[in-house]
Amino acid sequence: MFKGPLGPICLFMKLFEPKKKYKILFVASEAAPFVKVGGLGEVMHSLPKAMRELGHEARIMIPKYATVDLEKYPLHLEYEGLELEPETKDPYGLLKSNVLRHEDKNDGAVSYFLENMEYYEKRANVYGYSDDTARWVLLSKGVLEFIKVSEWKPNIIVAADWQTGFIPNLIHVDYKDDPVLSNITVVFSIHNLRWQGMFEPRFVPEMDFDAGQRKVPDLFDPAVLKLNGMKRGIMYADVINTVSPTYAREILTEEFGETLSRLLNERKDRLFGILNGINTDDLNPETDENLSTRYSADNIQNRVANKETLQKQFGLPIDKDKFVVAMVSRFDEQKGFDLITQTLESLMQNLDFQFVVVGEGAPVYRDYFEYLKKKYPERISGHFSFDNRLPRLIFGGADAILIPSRFEPSGLVQMEAMRYGCIPIVRKVGGLADSVTDFDPGRKKGTGFVFEKYEPISLIISFIRAFEVFRQKRQWEILVKRAMKEDFSWSKSAREYVKIFQLATKFHKEK
Fold first, then answer.
1. I need a labelling partner for 225 at 20 to 30 A (CA). Which of 201, 252, 279, 436 fits?
2. What is the chain's Cα-based Rg?
3. Contact (Cβ atoms closer than 8 angstroms) between residue 395 and residue 401
4. Distance CA 386, CA 358 (A)
5. Can you name the CATH fold of 7-60+129-277+491-510?
C-alpha cells in the first residue's frame, strides 16, 4: 500500500490513476536473472517487468560482471568507447568502458550493461572490494554519459541503494545545465539504510565525514572512497522511497535512522514507502516443480506430502503431525539471531517440534546450530550454504517460518512463505509489519503470529501461540488458507510506483 509522511498528497494521489506512460531506467548493482546476490537483484527483475505489464517502457542497467552467463544471455555491443571523465588523465585505460545490450526474446525486455575490464570484469564477486565506492561512481557516471549518447532516453531514473545514490547527486549538480540529463526525474530507492558506503556509518572519523556538499570527486581521487552514497541519494533525489510503508516511518527515528534520521526528516515530504512484491507466477505451489506434491488453498490436504519430503531431506523423523518450524535467512544480527540463541534451546526443552534452518553468514550462528544439531539430532537440522531449491522445499513443507528481525526494510521470505501456506512468526517491524497481521480467531483475522518488543519473552510467547494453534487442526487450516490468499503480486506495487513517479516529476519541474 502507498503510504508516506506526506499525508494530504497521498490522499490526493489515491483519487486517480495517472495515464502517462513513462520511460523508466532502473539502475542497480545487481539484477536477476543476470546476477543476483540478494533481494535487490530480484526486485530489479520483477519491478521493471511489472511496470512493462502496465504499459510503461522499463529497462535496467547494471555492470557487466564476468559471471554473467553469455550463452544464456547473449550481449551485443550498444556503444563503444564511452567517455566517463574526459578531463581525467587515464594512462592505463582503466576508465575505458563500453555499453552492452541484451534483449529478451520472449518479452522484448531490454537490459544494458556497463562493461569495464578493471572495475567489473576482473572481479570474482559483485561486492566486497576496498574500491567499491569508485566502482559504483563509475557505474553512475557511465549510466548518465550513456544516456547522453543513446537514442533511447528515459524520463525517470530509479536509482537503487547507496551504490547508485551518486546519480541524483550528479544530475542535480554536475549535469544541472545539460539539456538532456537535467530534464530527467530521479527517484532514489532505499532497500536497506544500514549500508551507506565502505564504512560503518556510526563510527566515521570526523575527517572522513561526507557532508554531501562537495562535488563527486574524480575516480582517481582518494576522497572518492569516503563518499556516502546513501546520504547523497537522499539529499538530491526528487523523491525518496523505501521498500515498505512502516520502514519509511521508522527511519525518521534515531533508532532506525542509521545516523541519517535528521536528514530524512528534513526531506520527509519527499519520502514514501511501497511494499515490495513477489513473483507470484514463479512462486506458485500449484505449478512449482520443486515440490513433491503440488497444491492450492483449495486442496491444502495435499501439502502434507511435502512435509514428509522435507523431513526426509533433512534427516528428521517423518511425522505429519509434528510441528515443523523453519528459518531461511542470512546469518546476521539484523535478522534477530541473537534472539534465537537466547530462546531456541529453551523452546526445544519445553515443546515438541522440529526445526530446520537454511542460510549462511556469521560463523558464530552456524556454530550455535551445529551445537544444537548434536544435542537434538532428531529434532533440528540445517543446510549452511546457498541452494536455490531448498527455500521452496521449506515453504511447501514446513508449518511455520520464523523471522524475528531487529529491523527489516521489506523482507520477501514472509511473503513467499505465505504464498505456500507456511505461517510466519515475525516481529512487528518494517515490511514484516506491513505484510503479516496477527492471528485473531475471534475476529476471524490474521495471517501469522506477531510480536512487538525485541526481547526473548515476546518471541517465546508468539512461538507458543503458533504451537498451540497448530494443534487445533481446523483453526490452523483456516489460517493457512487465509495466508495463501494474500495478494503480494508486483502488479499491485507497480501501480503505487507510478503514482510516486508522477509526484517526483512534479517536484522536478518545480526546481
1. 252
2. 23
3. yes
4. 8
5. Rossmann fold (3.40.50)
Asked if the domains 7-60+129-277+491-510 and 300-488 are classified in one and the same CATH topology, the answer is: yes
User: Is there a cis peptide before residue 363, judged by omega within 30 degrees of 0?
Assistant: no
The grid cell for 462 is: 508468539
323-328 and 353-358 beta bridge pairing: parallel
Chain segment 480-494, per-residue pLDDT in tens: 999 999 999 999 899
Separation of alpha carbons 219 and 242, rounded Å: 29
Name the strand (E) or helix (H) holding 495. Answer: helix 490-510
Dihedral through CA 68, CA 73, CA 74, CA 79, nearest 10?
Answer: -70
Give dist(CA 319, CA 304) in Å, integer. 10
Q: What gap in Å lies between CA 183 and CA 335, rounded to an integer?
A: 40
Residue 29 to residue 64: CA distance in whole angstroms: 10
Closest-CA residue to 2 (of 506, 492, 504): 492
For 203-232, write each residue's pLDDT tens digit: 767 666 787 788 999 999 999 999 999 999
- Which three three-digit cell numbers place residue 165? 545514490
Residue 327 pLDDT greater than 50, yes or no: yes
Cα–Cα distances (Å) from 61 to 47, 57, 171, 178, in that order, read 14, 14, 17, 21
The closest of 55, 157, 48 to 111, measured between CA atoms, is: 48
Quick check: helix, strand or coil at residue 182? helix
Q: Where exactly are the structural domains of the chain? A: 7-60+129-277+491-510, 300-488
In the three-class reduction of DSSP (H, G, I as helix; E, B as strand; rest coil), residue 358 is classed as strand
Q: Does domain 300-488 have CATH number 1.20.58.340?
A: no
Q: What's the rounded Cα separation, in Å, for the pair 108 and 483? A: 34
- Paired with 489 in beta bridges are 278
